[in-house]
Write a structure and sequence with these properties.
The chain has no helices and 24 strands. 49% of the residues are buried.
Length: 286
């Protein structure tokens, strides 16, 4: 099965797709292009920022939480205004935000990484009830942040390790045990990137450099893969009217210049229709 082009705009580093359940609309980012992009029935739109932006959650119909290189922000889709919710490594010029996702309790998990993937420079945080708390440190490339639909587990990865971790959560959504390895992709030479979990608990994960999104059952067993016509698939999200479509961002970063022809699809955003049943992205509660 091969994904088809959903949006032909080419991102340097497409990431962070979010299907807004109230607006029935996809939002995503070009991290290196410092843009938020969207597409709906009325057409395409984008917003420019003065720093890198990478991930989002929805607060209400008109407002997103947006993670940037220096903070978590309330962003008004009507007028483009933003206001700070919490600083995020604001005094650390080495790092920026990367992967992030709302959790089922109304919190928001956000990872950071070095601009040049400096070893161990990043971390993973949780914003919850107005406070930002560090969960895991010494992360090189934060990724794969997503949650089991039964609220039992969070997943995350440090792409540099080739491993996807899982951690048990307590009743308030805080880690309740030491993380353990869920997937070890090192033998296959696969690089875990962004991920999302469907209604059945299956993990759908983009694998940087492999041109695919792969699905793994809650047991960790591989079940299927979707071919993406871009080498660097970055993150999937479920969307569409019934949350049955898988939308996938990709990147041009790291592709040899000679391959970045007018015909190449690297950096575009893709869709596979009616592939599985997703769950609505939780609302961020501030």
């Amino acid at each position: 099965m091969t994904a088809q082009v959903y949006d032909a705009r080419k991102c340097q580093l497409g990431e962070g797709p979010l299907w807004h359940p109230q607006r029935q609309q996809l939002f995503w980012f070009d991290i290196l292009g410092r843009k938020l992009l969207t597409k709906d029935a009325s057409g395409s739109k984008d917003w420019d920022f003065d720093e890198e932006v990478s991930a989002a959650g929805w607060i209400d119909e008109a407002t997103l939480l947006i993670a940037s290189a220096t903070g978590l922000w309330r962003f008004d889709l009507r007028d483009g205004n933003r206001s700070i919710i919490s600083p995020l490594e604001r005094d650390n010029a080495v790092t920026r935000s990367n992967d992030g996702r709302a959790d089922p309790w109304g919190g928001f998990w956000i990872g950071t990484m070095g601009y040049n993937a400096e070893k161990g420079a990043g971390a993973i945080y949780r914003l919850y009830q107005g406070q930002l708390r560090k969960l895991f440190g010494e992360i090189t490339i934060s990724n794969t942040i997503c949650f089991a639909p039964n609220r039992s587990t969070a997943y995350f990865s440090d792409t540099a390790t080739g491993k996807v971790m899982r951690v048990a959560l307590d009743r308030s959504g805080w880690p309740d045990a030491a993380p353990e390895v869920f997937l070890d992709l090192t033998a296959e030479g696969l690089n875990p990137d962004g991920a999302v979990v469907d209604k059945s608990g299956t993990l759908w994960i983009a694998q940087w450099g492999a041109g695919r999104v792969a699905a793994y059952a809650p047991s960790g067993q591989f079940t299927q893969a979707i071919d993406v016509p871009a080498a660097h698939s970055t993150c999937p999200a479920f969307g569409g009217k019934d949350l049955g479509d898988l939308l996938i961002t990709s990147a041009r970063q790291g592709i040899p210049v000679a391959q970045l022809t007018e015909q190449s699809k690297d950096g575009q955003t893709f869709v596979v229709e009616k592939i599985a049943q997703g769950v609505p992205e939780p609302r961020v509660i501030l």
